Amino acid sequence: LGVAAAIGAQTGVPSMVLMRATLGARGSYLPTTINLVQCVGWTIFELLVIATAAAALSDRALGFGAQWLWTLVFGALALVLGLMGPVGVVRRLVRKVSVWAVPLALAYLVWWTLDGANLGAVWDRPGEGGLSVWQGADIVVAVTVSWIPLAADYTRFSRTPRAALLGTSAGYFVPDALLLSLGALLVLTRDVADAAALPPAVAAGGVAAFLALLALTVAETDDAFANAYSGAVSGQNLFPSVPQRLLVVGTTSAGVVGALVVELVSYQAFLLLLGSFFVPLFAVLLADWLVAGRRYDEVEVFGAPPWRPGLVAAWILGFALYQWLAPTGPSWWTDLVARLEPPSWGIGATIPSFLVSFALSLALSAVARS
Question: What is the pTM of this model?
């Protein structure tokens, strides 16, 4: 993720425009379309989590939940932030509110999780089978890799690629490691196994817990903004003549409608599907960028050929390998893949698909550029 952020800072263009240099001008439409879908999907998920938390808070404080109302309220707030743009959001929300409220709220949430927990029993608890370590890693990587197609949308404003690399790497790794560990403890100590069950459990913990959940609920809105905004920025690669503000309204509205009609369910299949698309895509981008001398110039981005078929094929091959090792998607698709007899090696799909796409792209880019 840090490397993707650095590439975005070096080129100064949004992520899906950047993909023109890698896959070609029209070839970039393929990841753009997929990224639009994932941005709307994540916007729905974020609004669901926020509205569920807000409903738990209002139910405890006011006696009514009205999750649909909170979906509309925070959807409107996400729209305002989207129209404000990332620089405005950082200056007005992140620096003044989130950077203070979130660490304090998370500190309380850590204490609430550990209070009365028998950590020795948790440590000694035997495994129950299911996913292997590598298959679990696929899910963790998928959470991270889903941000790679969005990274350059924000780091194009960075002062230097080095700042983008270090800031993104450290800024994502530290809280990610903390919160994944905290999530594991919540499952094992509080019997909270899904996102919908967490807000009511926290809200019932007293005044301090109430305030902590309130702070996290408000601060979480910037994630809904980020996904809706990036969906709009990606849409500009497909529809450059459409004003960005109109696209922001469109993606945010789609997220709000989805949050009103979709139930909060496990996103494991959604994450693995994203991983199958974006792990090999990043491998192709990284290989071509390295062969280009770790720099894309203006001509390579805006003067790209319509297609770079070799690199598109390398991406598709990586996707196919990922899906063969971890079939994910609608039933007709998984039934089709099952006919190819996927192996049960338990090695996960992330590393094999990345290495295949990276090696093939490295060779094809070297030949093409020579």
Answer: 0.89
Of 241, 272, 301, whose CA–CA distance to 143 is shortest? 272
Contact 328, 269 (CB under 8 A): yes
Give dist(CA 32, CA 234) in Å, integer.
6
Give Cα 244 to chain centroid, integer Å. Answer: 21
**Cβ-proximal residues to 281 (8 Å cutoff; 6+ apart), any chain:** 19, 31, 148, 149, 315, 318, 357
Q: Which ranges constitute the DSSP H helices of 190-308? A: 198-203, 207-219, 221-238, 244-261, 268-291, 298-302
CA distances from 329 to 15, 46, 137, 262 (A): 25, 21, 19, 17
**What is the DSSP track for 168-219?**
HHHHHHHHHHHHHHHHHHHHHHS---SGGGHHHHHHTT-HHHHHHHHHHHHH
- AA identity, residue 2: G
Residue 219, pLDDT > 80, answer no
